[in-house]
Structure formats: C-alpha cells, structure tokens
Amino acid sequence: MTIVVTGASGHLGRLTVDALIERGVPAADIRAAGRSAERLATLAARGVQTAVIDFETPETLDAAFAGADAVLLVSGSEVGKRVGQHRNAIDAAVRAGVGRLVYTSAPRATDTDLVLAPEHAETERLLAASGLPVTVLRNNWYTENYVGQLDTAAATGELVGSAGEGRVASASRKDYAEAAAAVLVGSGHEGAVYELSGDDAWTFAELAGTIGDILGREVAYRSVSPEEHTRILTDAGLDEGTAGFVVALDGNIRDGALAEATTTLAELIGRPTTPLAQGLAEAREQSAA
Predict the structure, then answer these.
(1) Considering only CA atoms, which of 23, 22, 57, 254 is closest in space to residue 33?
(2) What are the structural domains, with CATH classification, of the chain?
(3) Which of 51, 101, 171, 197 can pair with 273 through a Cys bridge, CB separation 3.0 to 4.6 Å?
C-alpha cells in the first residue's frame, strides 16, 4: 500500500505523515511529496519515500502519484493560482489511477461568502467530475494562524481587528492532520464531505484574554471598523491588497463564516480537539524552537 501526502514540506502535510506513522502505517508505505528537497530530507531519514513536486509541472506529479492507493491533496498556498494547480494534481491522479483522493478544502466551500472559498469550491467541482473516489475535508481555521498576534500583544497590550463579535471554531493543525490520517487509512469515507472544526467557537475578546493568560499580562481586544482596520494595517506597512484581504477575512468572521463548531473532527480523531490556549502555547513554543 502506498499513501501519497502532498504539501509534506509544509506544516499540515508533515504532521499528516507523523500521524500516519503513529497509526501504524510503515514509513516505507508513505510517499511524502513537496517542493523542498531539503525539508523532505528529514522524512527520508525516517524511511519515508519522498518526491519533489511542483503543481505547475505535471510530470513531477505523474512520478509522485504512480502506484498510489491514496493521495492527500493538501490545498496549495498560492491564492489565485490554486485552481490550475489543483487541476494538474487531479488530472495526474486520474492518469495514475489512484485508489482514493482526499482534499483539504474550506468551511462550507460551496455555500459561503468566505473570501478564500471560491478556489476550493471550483476544486471540489473538478474532483466531482474526475470520476475518482473522493473525500473532502473542509477544515475550519488553524489556531496557529493567530500565533503572530502574541508578539504584537506582548508589545502593545491589545489585539486589534474588525471581526466584531464574530466567532472562530479553530483547531490545531495536528488535529486536522490526525483527521486526514484517519480518513486515509480508514474505510467508508468515499464520497463524504466533512465539515471539520474545533469543539468550541471563540470570540476575539476571548482570544485576547487567552493571549493575555499566555503572556502573563492584560491584553484587550480593540474592535474597530473595517475602514479603520484598513488604515491601521496600511500604516503598519501592509500593501493595500494584503490589508484588504485581511479586513475581508475579518468581515467574513464577523458575518459568521467560521463560527460553526461541529463534533466531526473530534469523532474522526477519537478525542476532544485541542483547546485554544493549548494550541496557541504549543505553536508559540514550536515557532521559538
């Protein structure tokens, strides 16, 4: 049996490889595929097969997917290019005759205003048309997305945003990676679309309080208008496009796009999801290592 994990030189893919090994999959049965040969080398040292791939170079995908019983397609990180890249990966999976394809999508991808969703929705449509047995993992936000706020809060004593009272049902990357591993080695997941999230949805005021507990100082959430948020971000040096994207995401959160907490992730991994405080603290430790 061969399980291919794309994005294995990044965070989620690497953690999925770890989770597969923890579940008893022999390292030699895992093929870790990613763009960085250097980052893949540590996995190769553990006995994992490795393959350097580029979603925009189909022949690298053909070699990586050859003989695969299952492929985890971790969504690309280049916003605006992902549909074409994912199409190449899906086409390669079809050519290779892979047994199953598992894809990491976005919450309610085909029925949401989330600014990141359209590329995921189009990818899901490509998957549906591919004829492959497919499982879609619609991952909510990663708690690690907010670890950078710790340094800012340590310096300023506040967390600034325009998400209002919106909630985020985040979980740690390790949680999502364990779910991906469970689906890759399990049965009965073909055709499923799983909405995955943390067990609890938190507000930014609660996030600020949690950050304050980690830092050992008071941290307040300063809720601002989208216009003021844009100005603050551009004054801090962000270009208008990036600032607009951040503000749009906060608007999505304000409107409830990331608020749905389900039990599906916990059920797949067989334990409660990682609490916000623990996830942030662990992410901070890892970033400092």
Answers:
(1) 57
(2) 3-139 (3.40.50.720), 140-171+197-260+270-289 (3.90.25.10)
(3) 171
